[in-house]
Design a protein that fits this description.
About 35% of the residues have low confidence. Strands 3, 4, 5, 6, 7 and 8 form a six-stranded antiparallel β-sheet that branches. Strands 1-2-10-9 form a four-stranded antiparallel β-sheet, with no helix packed on it. It is rod-shaped and about 175 Å long. It is about 40% helix and about 25% strand. The protein has about 350 residues and is of the alpha+beta class. The chain contains eight helices and 14 strands.
Length: about 350
């Protein structure tokens, strides 16, 4: 009877163990201020020989699965995996930058518990002492001796005296301020100078650019205005003076380009009395000519041929025109002709210039 009862109990225990799911090869337990990572069925070669590979902490292991990988939604650990060929490695990827991974490496504790590997990772690791930090930064891949020394310090701390504990706490508490300061200020020092320097340089160049454009515009405006004022009105027909001689005859003093003309206009013809080149300095006027002592016009040679002009021509302006005609040389055949068509064309031009007045 007892044998039957024992057989029944053994079978029940076997069935109960068969119903339980197998434990995972990789497991993560949240312990509040730290995280426990368990790798079952594996043996760690050297618990103190931890290497840092970017955001990963790795140990060389023996035995266990060939490959295993699990990802977690933990605020400290992103992924745990067994990877690589011989020698294989237990790799723990952290949610931290490369500078903080070195602090985790000095505070992590790995040990062999039976057939399992237990790795304890704190949530907020304390920064390593200055000497250890300098060694970690100087070497590309930390070697086993520095890690062994850094790992042994936290384990030996509980057995030290109160004074040693206080000194160690002060030493480990002071460096975080020194390490955290460069991390907080470095991005600001690298990011701020570029935009500030570019804005200052652009602001300093704008006044010079605007001033140069204003000077160029002012110079062009002054040059164009000066040319307009200084440009002579060549090619323009001007009526300098006009006097009526009789009821239907008129003497007109004209300026055409660089020459001046004196013409006589009658109802039937237009005759050229004289022409000369216009002075460059100023246009001659009737008032610039010397006046005679008597009322009638008189030539410089003493000739009195102009005394036959009727009374209306005795004005100072007309007398000056006649004096200019007397001073000019005789007309050439190609200038003074009896061509009726040419005379009519002259009459039309002069009438158009005078607005149709006679």
């Amino acid at each position: 009877m007892r044998a039957l009862v024992l057989a029944f109990l053994c079978s029940a225990v076997a069935v109960a163990h068969a119903d339980e799911p197998p434990l995972p090869r990789l497991q993560l337990d949240d312990r509040g201020d730290h995280v426990l990572v368990i790798a079952r069925g594996a043996t760690i070669v050297d618990p103190a020989a931890v290497t840092v590979d970017r955001e990963r902490l790795e140990w060389v292991i023996a035995g266990g699965p060939r490959e295993a990988r699990r990802s977690y939604e933990d605020r400290t650990i992103r992924r745990v995996e067994v990877r690589g060929a011989e020698p294989r490695r237990l790799s723990i990827k952290l949610r931290a930058d490369r500078k903080q991974v070195g602090s985790f490496a000095t505070a992590v504790v790995a040990r062999q518990v039976g057939d399992d590997i237990h790795v304890i990772i704190p949530r907020r690791p304390t920064a390593p002492p200055p000497a250890v930090a300098a060694t970690t930064v100087a070497t590309a891949a930390p070697t086993a001796p520095p890690i062994a020394t850094a790992t042994a310090a936290p384990i030996a701390a509980p057995t030290a005296t109160a004074a040693t504990t206080t000194a160690t706490t002060a030493t480990t508490a002071a460096p975080p301020a020194e390490v955290a300061a460069p991390i907080a200020t470095a991005p600001t020092a690298l990011a701020l100078p570029r935009p500030v320097g570019g804005a200052a340089g652009a602001g300093a160049r704008w006044p010079w650019l605007l001033g140069g454009l204003a000077l160029v515009g002012g110079g062009l405006y002054a040059l164009v205005r000066r040319r307009r004022v200084a440009a002579p009105a060549h090619g323009q027909l001007e009526i300098l003076d006009s006097r009526a001689i009789g009821p239907k005859a008129r003497v007109v003093w004209l300026g055409a380009g660089r020459r001046e003309l004196v013409v006589a206009i009658s109802p039937t013809q237009v005759r050229l009395l004289g022409q000369w080149s216009r002075p460059e300095a100023a246009v001659p006027t009737a008032t610039a000519l010397p006046a005679t002592t008597d009322d009638g016009p008189r030539m410089a040679s003493g000739s009195s041929r102009l005394r036959a002009v009727p009374g209306p021509a005795a004005s100072p302006a007309v007398s000056g025109i006649l004096r200019l005609r007397e001073r000019t040389s005789p007309l050439a055949d190609d200038i003074a002709t009896d061509d009726v068509d040419a005379d009519e064309q002259w009459a039309r031009d002069i009438l158009a210039a005078t607005g149709g007045r006679r």
